[in-house]
Structure formats: C-alpha cells, structure tokens
Specification:
Distance between the termini: 25 Å
Structural class: mainly alpha
Largest sheet: none
Number of helices: 14
Number of strands: 0
C-alpha cells in the first residue's frame, strides 16, 4: 500500500516538475521580444552560415555541461561514486529544476536526488564547493575586467583608479584564499553550538585537499573558457566591427554583474540584456544586435538544456535509490 502510494506521488511530482518547467519556458519564449529581434537579424544571413554558427554554439553548450558533469563527478567522489553518464543525467535534470526556481536553487534538488537518500544533504554541500569555485573565477576575472573598463572609459583621477585596482586585487585574493581553505568553513560551523550537531552533513568540507580543489577549479576554468568563447563567436558574428579585446573585457563584467543579482533563470534574460546594453554602449551602437546575442546564448545554454533534462526527471526515485539501469 505504502509502496503504491509513494510510486503514485513520485510520478505526480515528476509530471508536475516537467509541466511547470515547460509552462515557464513556453510562457517566456512566446513573449520574448529579444528572441524575435534575433530571428529578424538572421533573416539577412545565409542559412548555411546560421546552421554552422549555431551548431558550433550548441556543441560548445554540450561541452560546457559535459565539463560540469565531470566536475560534479569529481566533487561527489568524496560522498558517493557515480559514473560520468550518471553525472550527466543529474546535471541536465538539475537544469530543468533550475529554470523555474530562484537563484537556480532547484538545480541542487535535481542533482542530489540521483544520489542515495542518506547522502543527498552531503551532496548539496559538495555541490556548493563547486559553485564557489565557479564564483571565484567569475569574481576574479570580473574584477580585473572592471579595472580595465574604468581605466578606458571612466574619466577619474589616477589615484582613484589605483584605489579601484587595489580593492579589486584584495577582493580577488580573498576569494582565492577562501576557496583553497574551504575547510575553514567547516571549522567555523563546528565552533557554533547550534550547527555542531549537523557535522555529519558538512564534514565533507574538511576532506577536500588543495590538490583536489585545484583540479575542480581547472574544470571551472575550462567551463569559463567555453562559455566565453560562445559569446565571442556570437558577438563577432552579429557585430563584426567589435574588437576581440572589447569582448574579452565586457563579457567577464557581464558574468560578474549577473552573479551578484538574484533572479530566475527565465527572468535572468532581462537582467542580462539590460546589463549588456549598459556596458556595450561604450563600444557599439548596435543595441538590437547586442540584445540578440544575449538572447541566443540564453536560449542555447539555458532553455535547450532544460528541455533535454526533462527526460531525466522521470528517472528519479524520490523515496529510494535512483534507477541504475
């Protein structure tokens, strides 16, 4: 009786998650003016060129999330051994959950439900370590790019420019030092009485060695390089007069600003567009093309993976181990 009830409830939850995700996606796509502008821009471009460029961007998207799956497998090795394919399934499943949850919180649930029940909370902690690694690079490269941007486009006294660079350097060093000493967080939690009783969940923080953290950070760096390359290709394709150096300066700033703003994945496109227009106005007046570039990357990197991940949602078992066929 209980087994049948759990099975029915699990099926209902899966259907609800997928239906909710698809409703969000459909609702956003049908009202998305930026995507309509992107389609208009493609009207004057040969179809062979369109398919070639978008095919490359799509392949880079698969590479990006494949690297994330490999990173997830490495992170979770301290908790539970999973295959690379199982890691890929969990990553794409998490993307389906993330698309309609604030700050991508659903991504945690989508991934950890591929682990055995007793290891799921620990899996959340392990996933946080990987997210911190990605945030370190976003902040470090973003801070450097902001310094370059201020030097080139903001007319202020040299002493203030030097102060900004100094603050950026301290800011970046803080994140690097904190990441490679993530065990400090474990010690901090142990020092507080009300969190000490949950030690079994966050004790994994103390197990990561610097060599292991470096390997995880290299996965993060590879991902950063991949989605930066996506932006470079699309911007140079739709706005060929842009200089590579300008793109390499502005794209890290976009990542940096977006990482500080709370949002939904599906609402995030509006934030991305406004941010891009604000900074790219210094190097181009092709506002429509800038917004179209952002919209195309958003579609390929967020929406398509979320749709693909809906298949893996049905492979979850909320009340026991995942199916491991």
């Amino acid at each position: 009786m209980t087994f049948s009830y759990n099975k029915i409830l699990a099926t209902f939850i899966k259907v609800a998650i997928v239906a909710f995700a698809f409703w969000f996606i459909y609702n956003k796509l049908t009202k998305h003016n930026d995507l309509k502008e992107f389609i208009k821009l493609l009207g004057n471009i040969p179809s062979q060129q369109i398919w070639a460029v978008l095919g490359i961007i799509f392949a880079l998207m698969l590479c990006n999330w494949g690297l994330e799956a490999a990173k997830w497998k490495q992170l979770i090795a301290r908790v539970e051994q999973i295959s690379l394919w199982r890691a890929i399934e969990s990553v794409f499943c998490g993307l389906t959950w993330a698309v309609f949850t604030p700050n991508r919180l659903g991504e945690y649930g989508g991934r950890v439900f591929f682990l055995s029940p007793k290891r799921r909370i620990i899996g959340v902690v392990a996933m946080t370590v990987g997210n911190i690694g990605q945030l370190v690079l976003t902040n470090v490269f973003g801070a450097i790019a902001v310094c370059v941007f201020v030097h080139r486009f903001i007319p202020i006294e040299p002493i203030f420019q030097a102060a900004i660079c100094g603050v950026a350097m301290v800011f970046g060093l803080f994140f690097i030092i904190f990441y490679f000493n993530i065990k400090w967080l474990n010690s901090l939690l142990l020092s507080m009485k009300f969190t000490r009783k949950y030690e079994r969940f966050y004790a994994v923080l103390a197990r990561y060695q610097k060599k292991e953290l470096l390997k995880i950070l290299l996965f993060c760096l590879a991902r950063y390089a991949v989605f930066t390359t996506q932006y470079i290709i699309v911007f140079l394709w739709l706005i060929p007069e842009l200089h590579m150096t300008d793109i390499l300066m502005l794209v890290p700033i976009l990542f940096f600003v977006q990482s500080t703003l709370p949002s939904l994945d599906l609402l995030d496109i509006g934030i991305r567009s406004v941010t891009a227009l604000f900074f790219f106005k210094y190097v181009t007046n092709q506002n429509t093309a800038v917004v179209a570039c952002i919209a195309s990357i958003w579609l390929i990197n967020i929406i398509i993976p979320a749709i693909l991940g809906s298949y893996f949602v049905f492979k979850l078992n909320f009340f026991g181990n995942t199916q491991r066929n």
